[in-house]
Amino acid sequence: MRLDCAIIGGGPAGLNAALVLGRARRKIMLFDENKARNAVTRESHGFITRDGVKPAEFRALAHQELSKYPSITITPVKVTTIEKQGENCFVVTTEAGERYEARTVILATGLKEQLPAIPGIADYYGRSLFSCPYCDGWELRDQPLVIITDTAEHAFHMGMTVYQWSRDLMICMNGGEKLEVEQAEKLRSKGIQVFEQRIKGLTGSEGRLACVILEDGVELKRSGGFVTSTWAHTLPFADMLGCELNEHGGIAADDFGRTNIDGLYAAGDASVIIPAQLIAAAAGGSRAAMGVNTELMHADF
Keywords assigned by UniProt (predicted)? Predict the structure, then answer.
């Protein structure tokens, strides 16, 4: 079966790309392994009409809407390889050995994140520790918060940002870079304390943070906060296909998702990386779908 487009990844970028292409009457297949990065998240925010939606509910609603379009097929399998074979032909192979030919491909594979090596941090991530203040800052407003990071740039930027939601704020550098004197003084002038020591551990219950314990025994009573992670692509397709990367490590793409490989598009967190928001990823999927449809339209007309 020859597809107009194979979409790899069933998050908001892939789902919205499928919707736009399905409505354009393109024959597409959405490959969804269902291993979302936000699986630990209980609610997603910042998406108008869906503010506070549970990720599983969002996905179910999207699948229900896509089911109206007969040219969309959703396949719940893992893609293992993607090969480009000549012009206008990609061969997508699944874990089960099934092979599909597609004229174009959209990579909407998202990201995986590596949390700092702090004992127990995963127990709190997605419940009281988060990565994006725009997504979860409102729920933590006016609480005693902590920012956990190890780079000066992130510390200062996050300090300024999170200050909008809470003035009771501490920054833990976890033994990482030291802030510039001017940055440290600016933060202190706003009442934001900075601790350079490594973090020994965290305490709390049922995912609710209560205390950050530093290696010198100092205890910081905090009820939540934000943590900076390192990001990596979930699957090796960018390397496999020879994609160029942008300054943040995402797949370099233009405003309509076009990569440096003809017929290959990228959308969502896999391309943008920052900001990693539900609505931004969905918008990227829509733009990539328009790019794909335009390419196919010119090829066929």
Answer: Flavoprotein, Oxidoreductase
